[in-house]
Request: fold
Amino acid sequence: MTLDYRMEAFIQSSDFDLGDGEQFILTRRMIPDINFSTSTATDPEVSLTIRPRDWPGSNFQGDPSDTQRVIETSVGQYTNQVYIRARARQMALKVESENLGVQWQLGLPRLDVRPDGKR
Reply:
């Protein structure tokens, strides 16, 4: 019998947009600003998810019928920046971990975004 110990933890932002959702946002990279100083794990990391959507109240673009997908990447203690490409009216950011010994603190993530037209 093998025991699999996990502790799930996450935080998710509310939706953010430009001009009350009138413009699309093009996101190109991110500085995650996550601190692992109190972790006991050898290589602590979290999963970072950018969740784009085009319309308020619609599903995040992660299901197969959508043209864009949810962007997921790992962020470790030595990750300075993450290159991503996401375009949508609104986006949300989610940081999560599930391994024991991984303790993290979210600072102030910085996104490299620009307006990308109207529809």
Remarks:
- The chain has one domain: 8-115.
- The first strand starts at residue 6 and ends at 12.
- Strands lie at 6-12, 16-17, 25-31, 34-35, 45-53, 71-76, 82-88, 90-99, 105-106, 110-115.
- Residues 63-68 have pLDDT under 50 and may be disordered.
